[in-house]
Amino acid sequence: MTIGVSLQPSSVEAGGVNAVDEVVAQARAAREAGLGSVWFGQRFDYDGIDLAGLVGREVPDLRVGTAAVPILGRHPILLAAQAQTAQAATHGRYTLGIALGAAGLLGPAFGVDNERPIKRLREFLHVLRSIFDTGSADLRGETITAVTPLPAGLAGARPSVPVLVAAMGPQALRATGELAEGTLPFLAGPRALGEHIVPTLTAAAEAAGRPRPRVVALVAAVVTEDTAAVREASNSAMALYERIPSYQRVIALSGAERAADLALIGDEEAVAKGIRQYFEAGATEVVLTQTGLGGPLAQQRTWRLAGELSARG
Protein backbone atom coordinates (compact mmCIF):
# COMPACT_ATOMS: atom_id res chain seq x y z
CA MET A 1 0.00 0.00 0.00
CA THR A 2 1.34 3.40 -1.01
CA ILE A 3 0.24 5.94 1.60
CA GLY A 4 1.05 9.63 1.96
CA VAL A 5 -0.20 12.54 4.03
CA SER A 6 -1.46 16.02 3.29
CA LEU A 7 0.45 18.85 4.99
CA GLN A 8 -0.37 22.50 5.52
CA PRO A 9 1.13 25.33 7.53
CA SER A 10 -0.81 27.13 10.20
CA SER A 11 -2.12 30.56 9.26
CA VAL A 12 -1.09 33.95 10.61
CA GLU A 13 -4.41 34.08 12.47
CA ALA A 14 -3.55 30.78 14.17
CA GLY A 15 -0.24 32.17 15.35
CA GLY A 16 1.81 30.13 12.93
CA VAL A 17 5.58 30.30 12.75
CA ASN A 18 7.41 30.68 9.44
CA ALA A 19 5.20 28.65 7.13
CA VAL A 20 7.94 27.09 5.01
CA ASP A 21 10.07 26.13 8.01
CA GLU A 22 7.02 24.61 9.68
CA VAL A 23 6.07 22.46 6.70
CA VAL A 24 9.64 21.29 6.08
CA ALA A 25 9.70 20.09 9.70
CA GLN A 26 6.36 18.33 9.19
CA ALA A 27 7.68 16.64 6.06
CA ARG A 28 10.77 15.38 7.86
CA ALA A 29 8.58 13.97 10.61
CA ALA A 30 6.38 12.25 8.03
CA ARG A 31 9.45 10.68 6.42
CA GLU A 32 10.72 9.49 9.79
CA ALA A 33 7.32 7.86 10.33
CA GLY A 34 7.89 5.81 7.18
CA LEU A 35 5.74 7.76 4.74
CA GLY A 36 6.86 8.10 1.13
CA SER A 37 4.93 11.14 -0.05
CA VAL A 38 3.51 14.44 1.16
CA TRP A 39 0.89 16.54 -0.60
CA PHE A 40 -0.14 20.19 -0.47
CA GLY A 41 -3.44 21.86 -1.14
CA GLN A 42 -3.86 25.41 -2.39
CA ARG A 43 -4.98 28.29 -0.21
CA PHE A 44 -4.96 32.04 -0.62
CA ASP A 45 -1.95 32.50 1.67
CA TYR A 46 0.62 30.14 0.11
CA ASP A 47 1.35 28.52 -3.23
CA GLY A 48 1.06 24.74 -3.20
CA ILE A 49 3.43 24.11 -6.12
CA ASP A 50 6.17 26.32 -4.68
CA LEU A 51 5.78 24.67 -1.29
CA ALA A 52 6.00 21.19 -2.82
CA GLY A 53 9.17 22.12 -4.68
CA LEU A 54 10.79 23.59 -1.59
CA VAL A 55 9.90 20.63 0.61
CA GLY A 56 11.02 18.12 -2.00
CA ARG A 57 14.35 19.93 -2.22
CA GLU A 58 14.81 19.97 1.55
CA VAL A 59 13.71 16.34 2.11
CA PRO A 60 15.24 14.60 -0.90
CA ASP A 61 13.82 11.10 -0.39
CA LEU A 62 10.17 12.20 -0.30
CA ARG A 63 7.81 12.35 -3.26
CA VAL A 64 5.74 15.53 -3.29
CA GLY A 65 2.56 16.65 -4.99
CA THR A 66 -0.25 19.18 -5.04
CA ALA A 67 -3.79 18.11 -4.25
CA ALA A 68 -5.00 20.19 -5.83
CA VAL A 69 -4.44 23.55 -7.55
CA PRO A 70 -7.67 25.04 -9.02
CA ILE A 71 -7.35 26.01 -12.68
CA LEU A 72 -10.02 28.70 -12.44
CA GLY A 73 -8.23 32.06 -12.57
CA ARG A 74 -4.95 30.51 -13.80
CA HIS A 75 -3.28 30.19 -17.19
CA PRO A 76 -1.81 26.82 -18.22
CA ILE A 77 1.50 28.23 -19.54
CA LEU A 78 2.27 29.86 -16.19
CA LEU A 79 1.09 26.79 -14.25
CA ALA A 80 3.26 24.55 -16.44
CA ALA A 81 6.28 26.74 -15.69
CA GLN A 82 5.66 26.44 -11.95
CA ALA A 83 5.23 22.68 -12.18
CA GLN A 84 8.38 22.20 -14.23
CA THR A 85 10.33 24.26 -11.71
CA ALA A 86 9.10 21.99 -8.91
CA GLN A 87 9.97 18.90 -10.96
CA ALA A 88 13.51 20.16 -11.57
CA ALA A 89 13.94 21.19 -7.91
CA THR A 90 12.91 17.72 -6.71
CA HIS A 91 14.78 15.81 -9.43
CA GLY A 92 11.65 14.14 -10.77
CA ARG A 93 9.65 13.53 -7.58
CA TYR A 94 6.80 15.99 -8.17
CA THR A 95 3.20 15.29 -9.23
CA LEU A 96 0.93 18.14 -10.35
CA GLY A 97 -2.62 17.80 -9.07
CA ILE A 98 -5.19 20.22 -10.47
CA ALA A 99 -8.89 20.81 -9.90
CA LEU A 100 -11.72 22.68 -11.55
CA GLY A 101 -12.20 24.60 -8.31
CA ALA A 102 -15.31 25.70 -6.44
CA ALA A 103 -16.80 28.33 -8.74
CA GLY A 104 -18.87 29.90 -5.96
CA LEU A 105 -15.70 30.68 -4.03
CA LEU A 106 -13.10 31.34 -6.73
CA GLY A 107 -15.24 33.12 -9.29
CA PRO A 108 -15.96 36.15 -7.08
CA ALA A 109 -12.40 36.08 -5.69
CA PHE A 110 -10.73 36.28 -9.10
CA GLY A 111 -13.48 38.03 -11.02
CA VAL A 112 -13.76 35.24 -13.60
CA ASP A 113 -16.63 33.18 -14.97
CA ASN A 114 -16.72 29.40 -14.80
CA GLU A 115 -18.38 28.88 -18.16
CA ARG A 116 -17.92 25.53 -19.90
CA PRO A 117 -15.71 24.02 -17.15
CA ILE A 118 -15.22 20.63 -18.83
CA LYS A 119 -14.16 22.22 -22.10
CA ARG A 120 -11.77 24.43 -20.16
CA LEU A 121 -10.38 21.39 -18.34
CA ARG A 122 -9.76 19.57 -21.62
CA GLU A 123 -8.02 22.55 -23.17
CA PHE A 124 -5.99 23.14 -20.01
CA LEU A 125 -4.82 19.53 -20.02
CA HIS A 126 -3.92 19.71 -23.72
CA VAL A 127 -1.66 22.70 -23.05
CA LEU A 128 -0.01 21.15 -19.98
CA ARG A 129 0.64 17.88 -21.78
CA SER A 130 2.06 19.66 -24.82
CA ILE A 131 4.46 21.77 -22.78
CA PHE A 132 5.58 18.90 -20.55
CA ASP A 133 6.13 16.53 -23.48
CA THR A 134 7.32 18.84 -26.28
CA GLY A 135 8.36 22.11 -24.63
CA SER A 136 5.81 24.20 -26.51
CA ALA A 137 2.09 24.83 -26.92
CA ASP A 138 -0.03 26.26 -29.71
CA LEU A 139 -3.70 26.22 -28.81
CA ARG A 140 -6.32 28.74 -29.83
CA GLY A 141 -9.23 27.07 -28.19
CA GLU A 142 -12.77 27.95 -27.23
CA THR A 143 -11.93 28.82 -23.62
CA ILE A 144 -8.12 29.16 -23.63
CA THR A 145 -5.49 30.70 -25.87
CA ALA A 146 -2.03 29.35 -25.11
CA VAL A 147 0.79 29.99 -27.60
CA THR A 148 4.41 29.81 -26.45
CA PRO A 149 6.47 32.38 -28.42
CA LEU A 150 9.70 30.92 -27.02
CA PRO A 151 10.70 27.39 -25.92
CA ALA A 152 8.87 26.45 -22.72
CA GLY A 153 10.61 23.23 -21.71
CA LEU A 154 12.82 23.43 -18.61
CA ALA A 155 16.15 21.64 -18.26
CA GLY A 156 15.99 19.11 -15.42
CA ALA A 157 12.19 18.85 -15.40
CA ARG A 158 12.27 15.15 -16.16
CA PRO A 159 10.52 12.83 -16.29
CA SER A 160 7.60 14.67 -17.81
CA VAL A 161 5.44 16.05 -15.00
CA PRO A 162 2.57 13.64 -14.25
CA VAL A 163 -0.83 15.34 -14.01
CA LEU A 164 -3.69 14.21 -11.79
CA VAL A 165 -7.13 15.83 -11.74
CA ALA A 166 -9.47 16.06 -8.76
CA ALA A 167 -12.23 14.66 -10.96
CA MET A 168 -15.33 12.98 -9.54
CA GLY A 169 -18.16 13.69 -12.01
CA PRO A 170 -18.51 11.56 -15.16
CA GLN A 171 -17.54 14.25 -17.67
CA ALA A 172 -14.46 15.32 -15.71
CA LEU A 173 -13.49 11.68 -15.20
CA ARG A 174 -13.71 10.96 -18.92
CA ALA A 175 -11.53 13.98 -19.72
CA THR A 176 -9.06 12.88 -17.05
CA GLY A 177 -8.88 9.32 -18.32
CA GLU A 178 -8.20 10.54 -21.84
CA LEU A 179 -5.69 13.30 -21.07
CA ALA A 180 -4.13 12.88 -17.61
CA GLU A 181 -2.34 10.25 -15.54
CA GLY A 182 -5.10 9.82 -12.98
CA THR A 183 -7.44 11.34 -10.45
CA LEU A 184 -7.39 12.77 -6.91
CA PRO A 185 -10.86 12.17 -5.44
CA PHE A 186 -11.68 13.56 -2.00
CA LEU A 187 -14.76 12.55 0.02
CA ALA A 188 -15.34 9.69 -2.39
CA GLY A 189 -15.81 6.69 -0.13
CA PRO A 190 -15.08 3.12 -1.20
CA ARG A 191 -18.56 2.72 -2.68
CA ALA A 192 -18.32 5.81 -4.88
CA LEU A 193 -14.75 4.93 -5.77
CA GLY A 194 -15.45 1.35 -6.78
CA GLU A 195 -18.83 1.81 -8.44
CA HIS A 196 -18.48 5.17 -10.17
CA ILE A 197 -15.02 6.77 -10.24
CA VAL A 198 -12.70 3.88 -11.07
CA PRO A 199 -14.89 2.28 -13.77
CA THR A 200 -15.52 5.58 -15.61
CA LEU A 201 -11.89 6.67 -15.39
CA THR A 202 -10.49 3.30 -16.43
CA ALA A 203 -12.86 2.94 -19.38
CA ALA A 204 -11.89 6.38 -20.68
CA ALA A 205 -8.17 5.64 -20.33
CA GLU A 206 -8.52 2.30 -22.11
CA ALA A 207 -10.51 3.86 -24.95
CA ALA A 208 -7.77 6.47 -25.38
CA GLY A 209 -5.04 3.82 -25.36
CA ARG A 210 -3.51 5.16 -22.17
CA PRO A 211 -1.96 3.16 -19.28
CA ARG A 212 -3.93 2.23 -16.20
CA PRO A 213 -4.65 5.53 -14.42
CA ARG A 214 -3.50 6.39 -10.93
CA VAL A 215 -6.28 6.76 -8.36
CA VAL A 216 -4.96 8.78 -5.43
CA ALA A 217 -7.74 8.80 -2.85
CA LEU A 218 -7.64 11.58 -0.29
CA VAL A 219 -9.07 10.23 2.97
CA ALA A 220 -9.64 12.03 6.27
CA ALA A 221 -8.19 9.88 9.06
CA VAL A 222 -7.26 10.20 12.74
CA VAL A 223 -6.06 7.44 15.06
CA THR A 224 -7.43 8.26 18.49
CA GLU A 225 -9.25 6.90 21.53
CA ASP A 226 -11.28 10.10 21.88
CA THR A 227 -13.49 9.37 18.89
CA ALA A 228 -16.40 11.57 20.01
CA ALA A 229 -14.31 14.74 20.28
CA VAL A 230 -12.50 14.13 17.00
CA ARG A 231 -15.77 13.32 15.25
CA GLU A 232 -17.18 16.64 16.47
CA ALA A 233 -14.05 18.46 15.26
CA SER A 234 -14.27 16.78 11.86
CA ASN A 235 -17.92 17.74 11.50
CA SER A 236 -16.94 21.37 12.03
CA ALA A 237 -13.82 21.29 9.84
CA MET A 238 -15.41 19.46 6.91
CA ALA A 239 -18.87 21.07 6.86
CA LEU A 240 -17.91 23.57 4.16
CA TYR A 241 -17.67 20.76 1.58
CA GLU A 242 -21.33 19.96 2.11
CA ARG A 243 -22.22 23.28 0.43
CA ILE A 244 -20.35 22.46 -2.80
CA PRO A 245 -22.46 20.58 -5.38
CA SER A 246 -19.69 18.26 -6.63
CA TYR A 247 -18.96 17.12 -3.09
CA GLN A 248 -22.64 16.80 -2.23
CA ARG A 249 -22.98 14.35 -5.11
CA VAL A 250 -19.97 12.20 -4.26
CA ILE A 251 -20.83 12.13 -0.55
CA ALA A 252 -24.28 10.79 -1.46
CA LEU A 253 -22.80 8.23 -3.87
CA SER A 254 -20.62 7.07 -1.00
CA GLY A 255 -23.72 6.33 1.07
CA ALA A 256 -23.04 9.10 3.58
CA GLU A 257 -25.06 12.10 4.73
CA ARG A 258 -22.28 14.35 5.96
CA ALA A 259 -18.70 14.85 4.83
CA ALA A 260 -17.32 13.83 8.22
CA ASP A 261 -19.18 10.52 8.01
CA LEU A 262 -16.43 9.47 5.59
CA ALA A 263 -13.60 10.27 8.02
CA LEU A 264 -11.78 7.24 9.46
CA ILE A 265 -11.69 7.86 13.21
CA GLY A 266 -10.80 5.22 15.76
CA ASP A 267 -7.96 3.00 16.92
CA GLU A 268 -5.23 1.58 14.69
CA GLU A 269 -7.24 -1.48 13.74
CA ALA A 270 -10.32 0.50 12.72
CA VAL A 271 -8.41 3.06 10.67
CA ALA A 272 -6.26 0.39 8.98
CA LYS A 273 -9.40 -1.52 8.01
CA GLY A 274 -10.89 1.63 6.51
CA ILE A 275 -7.73 2.39 4.52
CA ARG A 276 -7.67 -1.15 3.10
CA GLN A 277 -11.23 -0.69 1.84
CA TYR A 278 -10.07 2.16 -0.40
CA PHE A 279 -7.39 -0.02 -1.95
CA GLU A 280 -9.90 -2.83 -2.42
CA ALA A 281 -12.20 -0.35 -4.20
CA GLY A 282 -9.49 0.51 -6.72
CA ALA A 283 -7.27 3.19 -5.18
CA THR A 284 -3.64 2.90 -6.23
CA GLU A 285 -2.53 5.31 -3.49
CA VAL A 286 -4.11 6.84 -0.38
CA VAL A 287 -3.30 10.27 1.03
CA LEU A 288 -4.45 10.89 4.59
CA THR A 289 -5.86 14.34 5.33
CA GLN A 290 -7.19 16.11 8.44
CA THR A 291 -4.76 14.05 10.53
CA GLY A 292 -4.22 16.94 12.96
CA LEU A 293 -7.82 17.17 14.14
CA GLY A 294 -7.09 15.09 17.22
CA GLY A 295 -3.97 17.00 18.25
CA PRO A 296 -0.23 16.26 17.90
CA LEU A 297 -0.19 12.87 19.63
CA ALA A 298 -3.08 11.54 17.58
CA GLN A 299 -1.40 12.82 14.43
CA GLN A 300 1.81 11.00 15.33
CA ARG A 301 -0.15 7.78 15.84
CA THR A 302 -1.88 8.25 12.51
CA TRP A 303 1.34 8.86 10.61
CA ARG A 304 3.04 5.94 12.36
CA LEU A 305 0.20 3.61 11.35
CA ALA A 306 0.36 4.85 7.77
CA GLY A 307 4.10 4.28 7.66
CA GLU A 308 3.71 0.76 9.01
CA LEU A 309 1.02 -0.09 6.46
CA SER A 310 3.22 1.27 3.68
CA ALA A 311 6.16 -0.83 4.85
CA ARG A 312 4.03 -3.98 4.93
CA GLY A 313 2.78 -3.34 1.39
Task: Provide structural commentary.
The chain is of the alpha/beta class and 313 residues long. The protein folds into two domains: 1-165, Luciferase-like domain (TIM Barrel, Alpha-Beta Barrel), CATH 3.20.20.30; 182-313, Luciferase-like domain (TIM Barrel), CATH 3.20.20.30. 46% of the residues lie in helices and 16% in strands. It has an eight-stranded parallel beta barrel with strand order 1-2-3-5-8-9-10-12, surrounded by seven helices. The chain has a two-stranded antiparallel ribbon with strand order 6-7. Helix 5 (117-134) packs parallel to helix 6. It is globular and about 60 Å long. The mean pLDDT is 95. GO terms for molecular function: oxidoreductase activity, acting on paired donors, with incorporation or reduction of molecular oxygen. InterPro entries: F420-G6PD/mer (IPR050564), Lucif-like_OxRdtase_MSMEG_4879 (IPR019910), Luciferase-like_dom (IPR011251), Luciferase-like_sf (IPR036661). Residues 8-284 form the Luciferase-like domain. Keywords: Oxidoreductase. This is Luciferase-like domain-containing protein.
Features:
single chain; 313 residues; alpha/beta; TIM Barrel; 2 domains; two-stranded antiparallel ribbon; globular; F420-G6PD/mer; Luciferase-like_dom; oxidoreductase; Luciferase-like domain-containing protein
Q: What's a quick, concise take on this entry?
A:
Helices cover 46% and strands 16% of the residues. It has 313 residues and is of the alpha/beta class.
Helix content: 40-55%
Share in β-strands? 15-25%
Low-confidence stretches: none
CATH topology of the largest domain: TIM Barrel
Distance between the terminal alpha carbons, to the nearest Å? 5 Å
Structural class: alpha/beta
What is the ordering of alpha helices and beta strands?
EHEHEEHEHHEEEHEHEHHEHEH
Q: Would you tell me the overall average pLDDT?
A: 95
Tell the overall outline: globular
Second rung of CATH, namely the architecture of the largest domain:
Alpha-Beta Barrel
